[in-house]
Every structure is written in C-alpha cells, then in structure tokens.
Amino acid sequence: MAPQQMPPMAPQQMPPMAPQHMVPPHMAPPAAGETWTAERMDPVAGTPFGLVQLRVAPITSGLAVGSLVAGVAGILVSTLVLCFGVAGASAGWGALVGGAFTLLAVLAGGGSISLGLAARRQIRRSGQEGRLRFTGRGVAIAGISCGAAGAGIALLTLLLVVLVEVA
To answer: For 91-147, what is each residue's pLDDT tens digit?
Structure first.
C-alpha cells in the first residue's frame, strides 16, 4: 500500500512564519522629572541610523549592603556571647556557649570584612564608559567597621567570661 500524501496547502492556510528578527520589548518612557540622557552615540556605517547608549543611574552595591548586614549581625551575636557567658559563668557552661557564639560572631565579622573589601573594589572599578556605576562606599566602610567591632567584642567578651569562670 502506497503512503498517502497530504495535499498542498493553499497560501491563505499556510501557518504564519516566525519573524526573521527579534523586536526588543517596549520600554516605558521616563517618569516626570527624569530624562533619558545619551552617554554615547555611534553611527552605523552605511545607514542613516545610529546606536545610542543611554546613561544609567548609579545603584548601591549589593556587596556593600551585604557587608553592613553581616557586620550588624556580628555585633548582635557578640551581645549573645556576653549574655550567655555571664549567665552561665557560675554554672560552668558560660565559656562553652559563649565560645560557640564567639565563633559565629567571628565568622559573621570576617564575612562582613571580606564583603566590604570586595564592595570597595567593585565601587572603585565601576563607572568607566559603558559600564554601570556603583555607589555605597560609605556603606561598605560601615560594614567593615561593624564586622571588625563585632568580632573584637565577641573575642574580648569570651576572654572576660573565661577569666570569670576560672577565678
């Protein structure tokens, strides 16, 4: 038995063809008081068109914000070292629990310091032509400071708790 062949479709029944080029999504116009500012315009050779690169508003570095959050967490955990260390010093478990929270505070402080240094590097290297500009240098410095303070407070508090337990 011979295979059946499909009859050819009429032109009006042909499925629509996929577009040959992709159309970018529509961008909303700027809000009131904002304007689109061209940073650079390059002509496209052989055409009356040009390629416009728009200026993008600077944004706060996520690394800097993460550094500040981790630094504040380090300070808060260092207060737990003090609370549990002093509360358990007379019972003999204060140094053990304080040491566990000290480890957590030092890890949060170290993470905060490393994120802050990475954020400062990211902010310093941003802003060249055609690249996104990051802000938040002060936030990164605050994160570094809070992380160092949290780790230092936790270590000094643990030392105090151990001295109270031994004495």
So the answer is: 889 889 999 999 999 999 999 999 999 999 999 999 877 678 899 999 999 999 999
Residue 51 inside a domain? The answer is no
The residue segments making up the domain with residue 155 are: 71-162
Sign for the pseudo-dihedral over CA of 149, 152, 155, 159: negative
Please state whether 92 falls in left (phi above 0), alpha (psi between -120 and 50) or beta. left
Structurally, how many domains does the chain consist of?
1
Terminal Cα distance for the chain, rounded = 102
Residues in the chain: 167
The model carries a pTM of 0.71
pLDDT 10s digits, 68-87: 999 999 999 999 999 998 88
Question: Residue 34 and residue 82: Cα distance in Å, rounded?
Answer: 51
Report yes or no on 19 lying in a domain: no
* DSSP H or E stretch at residue 63: helix 62-89
